[in-house]
Amino acid sequence: MIKVILCDDHGLIRRGIRDTLADAGDISVVGEAGDYGELRELMRKFPEGGACDVLVLDINLPGRSGLDVLRVLMDEPHAPRVLIVSMYPEDQYAIRALRAGAFGYVNKGGDTQQLVAAVRTVAQGRKYVTPEIAQMLVESLTTPSPELAHQKLSDRELQTLVLIASGKRLSDIAEELTLSPKTVSVYRARVLEKLGLTNNSELTVYAIRNGLVEG
């Protein structure tokens, strides 16, 4: 039986993933967490990497982002195999996640059987990538290109850029990321500075031109 821990801040999402995996027959969800703190407490109950075969981890968590959590876990001697399951499209975060140590990346809006296949693959110690991600990896190897400005942004800065470009107000972003409006404003200022832009309209145009959001 493949043992799985879920870490997602939305209870309904966790329930949907749990039910999907339970239907597979060979997968058991042995624990759930809503943020990094809860995940740490949960994993302390299973010392020396015995907590699970696969940690299914969301990117958009309160406090530490999922990619921040991933990097912390990768520094530990008994790091779990992590499968990122996120609402963000593959072209925004998949390569970042894989480089940070994830064993796979699946979009929440994808086929449920894809999630089951991903968990089984990762549990075997193998990487799981969709055809779209595989194509991006091939292109990055065969046609290397100069690093784009937004690729230098931190995970939270990139999230802030995408959400602003999607039309969300700073207060909405703060609530979604479980951050203070002041902190979000700081991220926005950093994004503007790093991209050499001056306002939200320019941020939106930049995001559309670079395929970060749909126009």
TrEMBL record:
Keywords: DNA-binding, Phosphoprotein, Transcription, Transcription regulation. Pfam families: GerE, Response_reg. It comes from the Bacteria. Residues 146-211 form the HTH luxR-type domain. Residues 3-123 form the Response regulatory domain. PROSITE patterns: HTH_LUXR_2, RESPONSE_REGULATORY. The modification 4-aspartylphosphate is found at residue 58. Gene3D superfamilies: 3.40.50.2300. InterPro entries: CheY-like_superfamily, NreC/VraR/RcsB-like_REC, Sig_transdc_resp-reg_C-effctor, Sig_transdc_resp-reg_receiver, Tscrpt_reg_LuxR_C, WalR-like. PANTHER family: NITRATE_NITRITE RESPONSE REGULATOR PROTEIN NARP, TWO-COMPONENT RESPONSE REGULATOR. This is Response regulator. It comes from Roseateles rivi. The lineage of its organism: Bacteria, Pseudomonadati, Pseudomonadota, Betaproteobacteria, Burkholderiales.
